[in-house]
Each structure stands twice: as C-alpha cells, then as structure tokens.
Amino acid sequence: MDIRIGQGMDSHRTDKTRELVLGGVKIENDFGLLGHSDADVLLHAITDALLGSLALGDIGTHFPDTDERYKGADSAELLRSAYALVRERGYELVNLDCTVRTERPKLKPHIPAITKRISEILNVSADSVSVKAKTAEGLGDVGEGRAMEAYAVCLVKKVASCDAK
Ligand code: MG
C-alpha cells in the first residue's frame, strides 16, 4: 500500500498580549495565542499530521519548545521542514483537511487566505487543502474563549522509491 494517513491536533491558550497567526496568516484580533513559537495552532496540527503519516514522531520531537532556536519561530518554517522529511522519504501530500475550533474571531472571511497560504507553504495545489471553522457553542475552554484548537488529517502517497533513513 503506497498511501498513508496522518492526523494531528493542537491547542493553545488565548492571550491578549499576542498577535493572532492562523495558518500562516496574521489576523486582526484583540487576542492571540500563547506559545514558545508564533503559536500558530493550525500549522502545528498540520505539522503533526504530516509527521504522523510516516510515523516520524511529533512536532515536539523535531522542534522542542525548550530549544531557544524555536522561540518566536515562524511555524511555516517548521511545517516546511516537516514536509521536507515526508518528501525525502518519497511521499507527497494528496490532501489535507483541517478544522479550527474557536469562538472568536469569525474565521469564514479569512479561510480563502489561510487555505492559499498553506498551499503556498507546502507548494501544493489549493484544492488539496481544506480548512473549516467551528465554534464550541459557548462550551468549555474554547467556548469561553480561553483556548483555540485545531485538528488536521492528511493523506500522503508514495511517488518515488528511496532508501528509508
Ligand atoms: Mg502548538
């Protein structure tokens, strides 16, 4: 079988002193997300999904938050590095499907820009990237605005034979 599936999820606390970066796009908002890197919860979930598809560990294994090199890191770079590991093993992305859970801001107007940005980071066609947004109906940490969550599922297929590293 030359196709594999990966899934990833992430959550971050909201923080009024931070700017909001989601899917590699800066979004005007009165709060952002707390984290060692730029705290891009969506790109972190996608990074974990890609790493998971080839059983390559997780984002914390490759880019530990105890490492000063990743303080304030651009999560787009981390995602690019993770996808490079997938490509090195002869696989490429078939499609990616993601959901962001947040009460605010309304993400619908930002989805086209986010989708486009993710497809640019990964250098794949825009129709292989899907991003959806959900509220939590006011329930729990997400619903009460203390956290934001993201989920991602990806399919990868083998396109080249290469020696496993
Ligand atoms: Mg994270």
Largest beta-sheet characterization:
5 strands, mixed
* Biggest β-sheet: strands ordered side by side in the sheet: 4-1-7-5-6
Secondary-structure class: alpha+beta
Radius of gyration over alpha carbons?
15 Å
Estimated helix fraction? 25-40%
Number of strands: 7
Percent of residues in beta strands: 25-35%
What is the rounded distance between the termini? 19 Å
Query: Which shape, going by the Cα principal axes?
Result: globular
N-to-C series of helices and strands: EEEEHHHEHEHE
**Roughly what is the average pLDDT, rounded to an integer?**
94
Tally of helical segments: 5
Tell me which ligands are bound: magnesium ion
Summarize the structure in short.
The chain contains five helices and seven strands. The protein is α+β, with helices and mostly antiparallel strands and 165 residues long. It is globular and about 50 Å long.
